[in-house]
Every structure is written in structure tokens, then in C-alpha cells.
Design goal:
- The complex is a heterodimer of chains A (353) and B (258).
- With 353 residues, chain A is mainly α.
- Chain A has one domain.
- Chain A has a two-stranded antiparallel ribbon with strand order 1-4.
- Chain A is globular.
- In chain A, 48% of the residues are buried.
- Chain B folds into 2 domains: 171 residues, P-loop containing nucleotide triphosphate hydrolases (Rossmann fold, 3-Layer(aba) Sandwich); 76 residues, no CATH class.
- Chain B is globular and about 55 Å long.
- The two termini of chain B are 35 Å apart.
- The chains are: A mainly alpha (353), B alpha/beta (258).
- Bound molecules: adenosine-5'-triphosphate and magnesium ion.
Chain lengths: 353, 258
């Protein structure tokens, strides 16, 4: 049963299986294990980023295609939900219409970019995605009448997912309200999407993508139309990113260029894929969890650490909470240096050795 | 005479000023095994590249079963029936041996766009791939990653991929190059089997005289990209053209050299 859900792609390392299990349990029970607005918010972000990073891994790790437009597709899904909820009024119908429309637009745009540029060369695709993503980001901030510009859009999600909605008293000290439902909406949405992506990379189609990544010349020579497969992977990955964006919008009840479209976010995604391990899917889980946790708690940790060493020269300066980005950078350099195949790659090697 | 399965008409390619394949017109009959010989740089591999579509021709046409396929892509030609094994091993290095062959079986089955079943659930494809690995004596290595295989086994796998494809026209480019004396016969026996039992059309670039003598129905000689001789093995080896083209050393001398 578990094997079927995982599409036969088991973690293949005891340590990895344990880590993944812990992450799954923590996310599944986050509102009960770590009650608190901030921690639950972190957990929801992890769920969304797992899907976002996994969909990027489908493209980069399995298809060997570099894209800089992944946040654009993410943003299209998020804006889809925001616009639909604004214009149709709050409700699940608006969420689904927005998510589907966003996914459709993202996939169609990916199809266009793919057909136009993947025929030529992979590097050309990377450049085109960069150009299109920048253009869309500018467009979104200029069309402020529609998109809210730089300020973004704040909107209302279905009543059942709002904090005012109560469906019981308390369970283990946790309020049974719409916010809890919203968390589980995001959690199960992300879980289903992740399992679906895992299925796709382990399907006959996923095997062709791997073959193309390994040797596109030979893949063509045994009869696969390489361009079509690459374009299909681009569309799937864009659609999945848009759905992740829709989940994010439902959770935040807000969309804006910085949270969904920025280049910084794109770089974060790249880092998460690389740290977790490309072409493994589980790498997305590890990468997203590590990254989001570090992003949210490194600052606190450092503030505390610098408080402890106030008497020592230089150290408090280095550990000051303002330096957290520097340390995050150092962490990444170290992790890429020591785990060139990502955390997942390292753990799987360890088992073989 | 039956109609040819494969034909090239005035097939030519120029790289800058250099004519690598020079107006080669040649027809191949079904079930025939043709050896293609010529010194290094004669244009044998390039001739193959033009037929299977890796390089577009500067002029001339390629016809398969009477149909002009000159404008088609590599994958279209493969699906139309032209199969190719490469002189330089050209595999999927980080996948397993079984996965390499399975990918070819899958390409044949047309299930490449199936996204919602697991690849492992298609037992018939795995079985078909294993049957082929058995024929090339690689079954024990099926779980090994290709980059860890010995050179000889990689060459065998190269041949296995072509056999899995089972095209109307088989093209082998020095299939036994670099193989040890005890490994080469496995591959040569397979080629002999293709010819004798299944009557497949085979184009074989090969330097070793004993192999040619054993397998070939016909030899064509390429020299500086042009067709220098064409005919039954004994006749070609003895022909004046060949003797002259190779400055009196004879084909056998040339073949021994390389
Ligand atoms: N893509 C290319 N661009 C430029 N020149 C090329 C290209 N491919 C082949 N050539 C040239 O064409 C000529 C024929 O090369 P080819 O590889 O076909 O020879 P060959 O008969 O297969 O030789 P060998 O026995 O060494 O394999 C050579 O001079 C080679 O340098
Ligand atoms: Mg050659």
C-alpha cells in the first residue's frame, strides 16, 4: 500500500526514511505538536514549498532543463485564486476556478515558451524563461488596477477556512476553527500533489525524461521525439507550480510580487533543489524543510547566540541577527561542498558504501 | 530482383570545403548483409549519419521502402525502421543495464507518454528487455549501472539496444571494436543470427577481414567519401579499383592496418 502510494520509489536509505517519516508526522500534526501562529505558518509554507520544489525537480532533476520562470508559474496560480476570489466573492468555487484557470494559463504559457525555444537549445530555453519571467513581473506591478501592483491583493478565502469559523470547541488544547481547516487544506493538497509528482517521475514518461537528461542524442535515436517530451515536462511542471501557488494564496489570503514572483524566490527554489538532491523528489522535501526552517529560525537562534557571547570581542557582531543571511549563505556553500549530490544523494550513497 | 529496402541517391555532405560523403548512390536488398569498408576517415560513419538522420545531407536523397525520408528527423526515421548502433558507445550512463534496454522496448510500445502508471508495473516490458539481455549474455549485469560496466559489456549493450529496437534495417558501426577475443564472438553470432534466421537487412562497418568473409553477402568500399567498389566479397577484394585505390596494398593490407 505504502509502496503503491510512493509509486515503488522508496527512500532506499534507512536514515532518509526516518527523516522523511519525522517530517511527515511533524507536518501532519503541526497544529497539535507546535501550536502557535508562527510555527503553523512555517509548517504551511514548508508544505507549499515542497510541492513547488518538487515540481522544479521534475524539470531540472529529471528533465535536465533549466528554467528561471518557475516562480512566474507559481505566481500565476496564486494570482488566479486571488483574482477569482476578489471578483467572484469568497468561496470554494472561486478557489477552484482560480486554481484551474491559473494552472491552465501556466501550462499554456509553458507550452508556448517550450515549443518556441526547446526546439533550439536548452540554454536558449533558460534565457527565454528569464526574459518572460522578468516581463511578467514588471507587467504585474504595472497593471495595478487588476493586480494591485506592488501592494498585491488581499482577499477573502472561503468562510470555512477563516479563523472566525468554529466547528467545535477544543481538541488537545487546539481551537477547532477555520484556520485549522485551512492548514489541512494546504497539507493534504500538498501531499496529494507530491505523490502525484512522485508517480509521474516513476512512470514510463518519467523514465523517458531521465533518458533524455542522460543522453538526448541516443533517446532520439531509439525513437523518442525529445522536443515533445521536454515540452510536456515543462507544461506539467508549470501546472504543478501553479497549483502550489494556489495553495499558498489560500493560506496567506494575500498575493504580491515579492511573495510569489520575485527572482529571489527563484534562487531559493534552485538552492532547495540542489541542497535536497536533484532528480530524487525526496530531495524537495528535505531541501524545502531545511530552507524554510533556517529562513524562519536562524535569525532567532543567532540573536540568542549573540546574547550569550556579549563579553567576547567580534563574536556578537558576527552572530548578530542582522547577519543571518550571511550565515545562511555559509551554510549553503558548506552543504553544496560536502553533499554535491544533495542530502538525499549523500544518504543513499552512505547505504551503499 | 526485389525492390530495395533502402536506397541512397547521390547522397552528399560537405563540411566546409571537405566532401565527407561524395554522391553515393547505392541500393540495399532486403535480407542482405552488406559490409562497408574503407580506410579511417573514408566517410563510413558519416554515411551512416546521413542515413539515420543525425547529420542533414547537403544533397541527395535517402529512400526507405521506396519512400523519401530525407526530410525526416532521427526519431521519425527510427520509427520508420532504421536502427543504429554507434561506433563510440552511446548509452544512458547513469541508468541500469536493464533500464537502458527497457527504454528501447518502451519506445517500441508507444507508452512513452503514459504518466500515471509506474514503469515497474509494466512487467511485459521488463520481461522483453530481460529476454534481450539473455541473448547478449548480459542478464547477470542487469542491475548494474552502465558507467560501471567493462568496455566489452558496454559494446554488447550497444548491440542489445539495437536488437531491442528490431528495425527493418540494422546499422552496426564497428560493433566489436575494442572487444576482447572471447567477447567478440557473442556479438558476431548475434549478427549472423539476425541474417540467417530472421533475414534482417544489415549494414555493417567492419575492419576485420575474417568477420567480413564470414558474414558479408556483399562489400562496398568507400574511399574519400566516394563509392569505390561494390560487389560480392571475393570480387571486390580482387578488383583493380581496390588494388589501385590502396596503392597496391590490396584491401586486405588496409584492413589489417586498422
Ligand atoms: N561533423 C563533422 N564536421 C566536420 N568534419 C567531419 C564531421 N564528421 C566527420 N567529418 C570528417 O569527415 C571525414 C569522414 O569521417 P568518418 O567519421 O565518416 O570516417 P570513418 O570512415 O567512419 O572513419 P573511421 O574508420 O575512423 O571510423 C573525416 O575526415 C572527418 O574528419
Ligand atoms: Mg567511423
Amino acid at each position: 500500500m505504502i509502496k503503491l502510494l510512493l509509486s515503488g520509489d522508496t527512500p532506499r536509505s534507512t536514515v532518509l526514511a526516518v527523516i522523511l517519516g519525522v517530517i511527515l508526522v511533524c507536518l501532519a500534526l503541526a497544529p497539535f505538536l507546535f501550536p502557535g501562529v508562527r510555527t503553523v505558518d512555517t509548517a504551511a509554507r514548508i508544505c507549499v514549498f515542497i510541492v513547488l520544489v518538487a515540481s522544479y525537480d521534475l524539470l531540472l532533476g529529471y528533465g535536465g532543463i533549466v528554467s528561471f520562470a518557475h516562480t512566474m508559474f507559481f505566481g500565476i496560480g496564486a494570482y488566479g485564486v486571488a483574482l477569482a476570489s476578489t471578483h467572484m466573492g469568497r468561496g470554494f468555487d472561486a478557489v477552484f476556478v482560480g486554481a484551474l484557470a491559473g494552472t491552465g494559463v501556466a501550462a499554456a504559457l509553458a507550452l508556448l515558451i517550450g515549443l518556441f525555444s526547446l526546439r533550439v537549445r536548452a540554454i536558449f530555453f533558460a534565457m527565454i524563461t528569464l526574459a518572460v519571467a522578468s516581463a511578467v513581473a514588471v507587467l504585474v506591478s504595472q497593471l495595478s488596477g487588476l493586480t494591485g501592483g506592488e501592494d498585491g491583493l488581499t482577499f477573502q478565502t472561503p468562510r470555512a477556512l477563516g479563523p472566525a469559523f468554529k466547528f467545535g470547541d477544543e481538541l488537545f488544547g487546539v481551537k477547532l476553527n477555520g484556520k485549522l481547516l485551512a492548514y489541512y487544506f494546504v497539507f493534504f493538497g500538498a501531499l496529494i500533489l507530491f505523490l502525484l509528482l512522485l508517480r509521474i517521475v516513476n512512470s514510463p514518461f518519467g523514465r523517458v525524461l531521465q533518458a533524455i537528461r542522460e543522453n538526448d542524442f541516443r533517446a532520439e535515436a531509439i525513437g523518442y521525439r525529445v522536443v515533445y517530451y521536454r515540452v510536456a515536462a515543462t507544461c506539467l511542471s508549470a501546472g504543478a507550480a501553479a497549483l502550489a501557488g494556489a495553495l499558498y494564496a489560500v493560506w496567506l489570503r494575500y498575493v504580491g510580487p515579492d511573495t510569489t514572483l520575485s527572482m529571489e524566490l527563484m534562487i531559493d527554489i534552485l538552492l532547495m533543489v540542489v541542497i535536497g538532491g536533484m532528480g530524487t523528489m525526496y530531495g524537495a522535501v528535505i531541501g524545502a524543510t531545511l530552507f524554510v526552517v533556517a529562513q524562519n529560525y536562524l535569525q532567532n537562534l543567532m540573536g540568542a547566540a549573540s546574547g550569550l557571547v556579549t563579553d567576547v570581542p567580534i563574536l556578537p557582531e558576527l552572530l548578530s541577527a542582522d547577519r543571518w543571511l550571511l550565515w545562511l549563505g555559509v551554510l549553503f556553500i558548506l552543504s553544496v561542498y560536502f553533499f554535491p549530490t544533495g542530502v538525499v544523494g549523500r544518504l543513499r550513497q552512505g547505504r551503499q558504501a | 530482383m526485389t525492390s530495395p529496402i533502402l536506397e541512397t541517391r547521390d547522397l552528399t555532405v560537405r563540411f566546409g570545403g571537405h566532401v565527407a560523403v561524395d554522391s553515393v548512390t547505392c541500393a540495399f536488398q532486403p535480407g542482405e548483409l552488406t559490409a562497408i569498408v574503407g580506410p579511417n576517415g573514408a566517410g563510413k560513419t558519416t554515411y551512416f549519419n546521413l542515413i539515420s538522420g543525425q547529420i542533414p545531407a547537403s544533397a541527395g536523397r535517402v529512400l526507405l521502402k521506396g519512400q523519401d525520408i530525407s526530410g525526416k528527423s532521427v526519431s521519425q526515421r527510427t520509427r520508420a525502421g532504421i536502427g543504429r548502433a554507434f561506433q563510440l558507445t552511446n548509452l544512458f550512463p547513469n541508468l541500469t543495464v536493464l533500464e537502458n534496454v527497457r527504454l528501447v522496448v518502451q519506445a517500441q510500445s508507444g507508452k512513452g507518454f503514459n504518466m500515471f502508471s509506474t514503469a515497474a508495473s509494466h512487467a511485459e516490458m521488463t520481461e522483453a528487455a530481460e529476454a534481450i539481455l539473455m541473448r547478449v549474455k548480459l542478464l547477470e549485469s542487469r542491475a548494474q549501472v552502465v558507467s560501471e560496466l567493462s568496455h566489452g559489456n558496454q559494446r554488447k549493450l550497444e548491440v542489445a539496444l539495437l536488437i531491442a529496437l528490431d528495425p527493418a534495417v540494422y546499422m552496426f558501426d564497428e560493433p566489436t571494436a575494442g572487444m576482447s577475443v572471447d567477447e567478440a564472438p557473442v556479438v558476431l553470432d548475434l549478427i549472423a543470427e539476425l541474417k540467417e534466421h530472421t533475414h534482417r537487412t544489415v549494414l555493417l562497418v567492419e575492419h576485420k577481414m575474417d568477420v567480413i568473409a564470414r558474414l558479408a553477402d556483399r562489400i562496398i568500399v568507400l574511399h574519400n567519401g566516394a563509392l569505390a567498389a561494390d560487389g560480392p566479397p571475393q570480387q571486390v577484394i580482387a578488383s583493380d579499383v581496390v588494388q589501385e585505390a590502396y596503392m597496391g596494398r590490396g584491401l586486405e593490407g588496409i584492413l589489417e592496418d586498422v
